[in-house]
Amino acid sequence: MTTTQLPRRQSKLDGSRLAAAPAFERVALEVQCKPAADMSPLANRIRALMNLTAGGPTNLPLGGRYFDAVVTANGPAAYGVVTLMDEIQRGPHDRPDACGPVIEDPQRGWLIWLVPPETSKQWERLPHRFAVCLGAPHELALPPLDRTAPPGPYWLRRCRSDRLVPAEPLRQYLDQFRPDPVPHEAVLGSMLRAMS
After folding, report:
1. Across 174-179, average pLDDT
2. Which of 166, 173, 175, 179 could form a disulfide with 78 if both were Cys (CB 3.0 to 4.6 A apart)?
3. What are residue 119's DSSP bridge partners?
């Protein structure tokens, strides 16, 4: 096999026609170092949620975009309501404990049901005889996500991203089962943040 070199074309450009190198100017940019005022609450919530998912307790403000809290007594009547809420919230592929998130605080004798935001405003117009619903400006101390048994507050029904406890069925079942004693709202507001 023989190889033949291809012919080359000679360039007719001389060095005088080359473009000059571009000149770049140094421009000082002013960079804002502190976050915008409306980002601080969001950043605090993200840090709190990251702490919660890392296994630590955290405080989250009630109301807003996340949830409000309905607080009832614990005990046999309240556990009956949990069982009924499991049944109405169970989908075809759910586990038997399908109820939205419920925290039990055995020391204080409470169940804390996480319900949709703005529920407290609805319940404010029509208070409940066997429960107190709190929203903003209160905060709730959430136990670590993996705590599912005492000591201390724990998740009686786990926290999931796809559901909260529906407020209307909860209200009806609480009327039917009447868990007591009813938590006092002033005491609740001061203690929810301090749970650990």
Report:
1. 94
2. 179
3. none
- DSSP H helical segments within the chain, as ranges? 40-53, 76-89, 119-125, 167-177, 185-191
Which residues lie below 8 Å from residue 47, measured CB to CB, with a gap of 6+?
Answer: none
Q: What is the mean pLDDT of the chain?
A: 81
**Tokens 């421009």, located at residue:** 27
Read off the pTM: 0.70
Kindly report, residue by residue over 91-102, the tens digit of the pLDDT: 888 888 899 999
Radius of gyration (C-alpha) of the chain in whole angstroms: 30
Q: Which of 98, 106, 103, 75 is nearest to 169 (CA)?
A: 98
Tell me, what DSSP letter sits at residue 35?
P
Where does residue 55 fall: left (phi above 0), alpha (psi -120 to 50 degrees), or beta otherwise? left
Angle between helices 167-177 and 76-89 (to 10 degrees): 150
Average pLDDT on 146-165 reads 91
**Sequential DSSP letters for 50-88:** HHHHTT--EEEESBTTTBEEEEEE-SHHHHHHHHHHHHH
Question: Measured in whole angstroms, how far is the alpha carbon of residue 173 from the centre of its chain?
Answer: 25
